[in-house]
Amino acid sequence: MMAIGAQAQAQCGTDAYTVKPGDTVFTIAQAKYGDPEKWTLIYYANEAALQASVFQVTPGDVLDIPCEPGSQQADATPLRVETGAELKLLTGSNYEPFTDLAWPGEGMLTEIVNAAMETTPDPVTYSITWENDWSKHLFPGLDSKQFDMGFPWYKPPCDQMPDNERCANFHFSDPLVEVLLMLFVRSDEGFKFDSDDDLLGKSICRPHGFLTFDLDRPGRDWLQNGKVQLVRANNEAECFDKLLAGEVDAVSLNVFLGAQVIKEQGLQGRVVAMERPLSTAGMHVIISKKHWRGTTFLYRFNAGLAKLKESDRYAEIVNKHLGVFWEQIKSN
């Protein structure tokens, strides 16, 4: 991450912090939490205000500064049952901090889904099945209606890509959370990403199976017009191997997955995330368009999710899991 500049004097317990000259989300995180990489706590507490610029905060801007999360327990889920559920949900493990059986509360998005299900209008009993082979989720799991809804899934821009497999076959909920997709580069390269033009002629690695719709969104069309070279790898670690070997200019992953792989591969100090995000992408609950009650179930879920987001509980869940994640990244 970037070197620490001006020190923001943010105090836990205050409702707001007024940005001073020289502040960034990194310097505020350093002053508040003693760790610039915990900037995501500030980002998600101010998502609506920061989404367009993310890291470019302006003196005079007022930001909410959340306290470091405690160890509050997951909410009770009286409607979640093992057998005889009216609604069957499908997810998978090993996707920290979003969904994982070994993670507190089974992951951030599992907790959000649980809380939304408990607050839906006309709530029903539900179950959650864990299938770690994600290739089985959409087809046949959800398409054949073995399961009613699945999570979490990125949503392509369906208005521009109606024939996309996901768009053509599934309905999407409102976003559970927006995730930042970052560029990870070698720390000794002096890589510049101040605008999209800086990436023209560059090569970016993403593993096989990862979506690329953000690279061809309107105004970019990088892949369609050959402006940026997409290099595929078998997995995330192989992308970083290609980066260190000079075979690609950057690796593109979500901020959490990138940080996790950097830790696992011992690449701290050799690979860094650019300060400017490449894209944002929402993670959703989905249901097959063949499901005869699909729109009804989604309406209820979205109503529960909206109610949750209006409460303090949504921010508490997100904040808790971000804190757990970054503490694990820093641990040996």
From TrEMBL:
Pfam families: SBP_bac_3 (PF00497). The keyword Metal-binding does not apply. Residues 15-65 form the LysM domain. Keywords: Signal. InterPro entries: LysM, LysM_dom_sf, Solute-binding_3/MltF_N. The keyword Iron-sulfur does not apply. This is LysM domain/BON superfamily protein. It comes from Tropicibacter naphthalenivorans.
